[in-house]
Amino acid sequence: MAKVPVQFRLNGSDRAAFADPADNLLTVLRRGLNDFGPKYGCGQGTCGTCSVLIDGELRLACLTLAASCEGASIETVSGMADGPSLHPLQNAFMEHFAAQCGFCTPGMLTAAKALLDRNPNPGREDVIDAIAGNICRCTGYEPIIQAILAAARTLPAQRRS
Amino acid sequence: MEFRKDLFQNERDDNLNVVGKGVQRQDMPGHVTGRSPFFDDHAFEGLLHLKVVRSPHHHARIRRIDISAAERAPGVKRILRGADVPVNKNTLLSLINFGKDDEPSLAVDKVRYKGEPIVAIIAESEAQALAARALVRVEYEPLPAVFDVEEALKPGAPVVNDTYPGNCFEYHEKYDHQKLRFGDVERGFAMADHIVEDRYQMSPIEHAPTETNGSIAAPEQNDRFVVHSCAQGLFFSLGTAAKIVNLDSNRLHFIGGTVGGGFGGKVDSLTEPLAVLGAMMTGRPVRYVLDREEEMLHGGPRGAERIYIKDGIARDGRILARHIRSYFDAGAYTRLSSYAAIKCTAHLPGPYTIPNVTSDIYVAYTNRCPSTAMRGFGITAVDFALEVHMDKGAEACGLDPVEFRILNAYRDGDMKAHRRVAKNTALIECVQVAAEKARWPLSEEAQRQSSLTGGGGARAEIPATPIDENGRINRPETRGGRPTQTLPAGTMRVPMTKQPIMEGSTENRPSAPSVPQYEPYRPATAAPPPPPPPVPASRSAAPPPPAAPPVPPPAGPAPASQHGAHRFSSVFGTRRR
Amino acid sequence: MARFRGRGMASVNYPIGMNLGGDPSQALIHSNPDGKFTVALSAIDLGQGMKQVTRQVAAETLGVPVEDVYVDTADSDTGPHDMGSFASRGTHRMGNAVIAAAREARGVLLEAAAEELEVNAADLVTDGKGNIHVKGAPSRAITVRATAQAAQFKQGKTIAGRGIFLIPLSSVDPETGEMNPNTAFAHACLVADVEVDDETGEVAVLGMSSAYELGRVINPKMVEQQLVGGAWMGISHALYETPEPYYPNPDHGPRDFNEYLMPGPGDIAPYSITILERPAPDGPFGGKGPGEMCANPVLPAIANAVYNAIGVRVNDLPITPEKILRGLRANGGVKPQPRRGGAL
Ligand code: FES
Ligand code: FES
To answer: Could you tell me the pTM of the whole model?
Structure first.
């Protein structure tokens, strides 16, 4: 099958890959660009482990055609830390022991970031709503909810502009 | 989460530096940055992808396999069939010499469950492997299938697994199930005031880890193969793969240890052997990952279990006898179910001291995906059944369910049904604390009970036990057979395990007596046990220890209407009527 | 049409490690020239926290700060054999193997320090902060770092240790089932409150409260992870999930997470946990292992709570709305049972 070129910004850097027209973004990120942050959990849009931000919107990379991302700006968990300093969500996930196997964590963090980016003061229901598309088989969700709420509480000091 | 440090305090020294501290996990920075290296997070140049053709039938003879069109499909590098697998029959526990090889990596002349792998396609991309998979032609002759564990064990049922033509795992090359015989349950039932019987069922359960099963195998330097694996047992998987592809174990280099959830579903080495074989055959890295649908339908679930429980309970709430018959649904091949049945047997009758216990645990083959280990393997389903049954037992004798459990709970020094003495028990304290938290009213007697006291004595004795030949392999007439012999009281036949050497422990444990003589079986009768210990006139601060129901000598017949139950003092030293 | 509340309880125990033994674990430990330690294993961390449990056990035994120890697992070229992460065996079996390896390494460490301090190794203790000193005389001290450097470059000693833990395999009597299955058992009791809707048949878990006896808790945060996540799985097993909802009918298999039901973040209930610690005589620092049992009491407690709420016994898992409604119909309606206790 003829490959087509696709270019986008990935975590702030310009990247290019050749993809099959039918390739989804998850495959191109992982196998084309070696960004192993987003995970394959189902390829069906039902688990959220592949969550990424495309132009600031929460998207499932497994359901997104790579070719449709031409010129877009894509953020994955791999670019979430600001250099060596972790994002408040990453710190909060650590403090609240909100990961066990860690496989859902990249998607959870991405969904949580999408929430906090648009709503820096979420309530518990907002958090539940934001991660309702992300499956976690290990934690029972409560520590994740607590971590996101705690991260939100640290935001005003650090992020309010 | 809170601690009750006051309990068992004198058994601990709480002066450790690091142990007991909630310090951060070593792997947490990797988890929150997406850097934890799961098996699929490794880049390889020239990576190939493997997909398998699966049976659409529950049970069928394979007439013909035609791979010619698939071989010509774009991107296809290699197609594997059963004949390409060096050792195409294995059973997981062969690594510890338990059970016979019964499961092929790729089915050859028969498929025994829907989803059984038959052909493996290795192609340049997943899409190409999937496209070629659709071109493989397999002709089947469907066969009758069986799905119910009890149906499968009936004479004339379709044979699921030719290695075990009776459709059951064979224990000790002698019986079609694993037995537990402790005391005389029939006499216990005869003496009981209440008989509580029921049937329980746990449906299969999928492990559903967020990371599906998979592996990547690649040629490495020194003529070896590196395997990135999600196995729950690294050497278990290495050994299984080495056997199946017929390589020395040191030609394989397994890397894993960071796994996206397992819950038991990553013990079976579902993908490693074929990935390694693919890498051997193509000379290139091969990735074999189950998609989510395959994981759900063909990944091997927690097997279904059907459990029958019969309890005989005295009027005062003491359980006198418990019989359990249970069926593990292994699916089409053994995998680990054979182990679960023994683990389940060891667990019975639950954390309670019951003087007469028997169980018959079967592993039955059915035409479904082979089941495997899952969190609580051998225990979770039977705990559900036992604890619902305890609720019913409490109701039958009019006791509060919490009191009923404390009354029957095992304690330090009690003899368990598998003939080992209980130590380090803490059920009573857990029940007391949970009741207190829930403000569940408890009698003073129940609050005063302790795991540390009241056990042992008569409760430490091994009762005389009727033995039977029920369920001899290939001898259907022995089903439901009567007892043939009596094992005398106190008899042990399995030597005590040598304790592992722990520093500071020089304790030499006694070894078991030699194999005992059998006595001819004498039918059990409900004979009057000796009178109860006297009820103390005034209760002292320490409650009298609970007396185990004494085992009466198997003497002459007694009137059928006679119940022995009222003769037992309750654990609280008071009699209930 | 109404909602009915009920409460149920269950108590369980759980065996630690592979039934009948025969499941060895090995560990290797060595030190860098500056006294930082690496533990090499082939144990698997599938989320339960194997790496951190063994790290803490190694640090405690060596007598060094936990930051001075890293666990490297699992690579079959460097990590010695381990049976695997299942049967709640990790903490108990591998913990003991790590203790054995760490003891051996600590022995060399103290010998090397004794040589430097010109004292008897038996008189030395560690302070857990990176120092070794004479018992009762904290000023006669040397750092672990200096000791390791001396051992390596001056004394020619290797600060390393090997460990194995094995409970030998034993057999089962075919006639009686007599056996030596396990040496350590953990315990739990759990109370669950539910609310059942007699119109839809849906069961909501309102809250749970438990007491767990787990031997020595190696890391309370990780124990909490297991117990909270496991209780969620217990709710899921009790009320939601199965690939064969009409077992033994093999049809209706799920293909994705829309068809395979599990409770989401909006379906969880408050859960209060109390920990009891009765150390296992042969456990690492008395540790047992909570990994598997944490779901077990939830299933029957919920089933019993459903009965307490509406008088319907569901003996077949999972307890689906359909089974509740059929049970209600068979019973001729709701038959609430006596209330028990106060709010959780
Ligand atoms: S992998 Fe994209 S939603 Fe599951
Ligand atoms: S931490 Fe394992 S799936 Fe969420």
So the answer is: 0.93
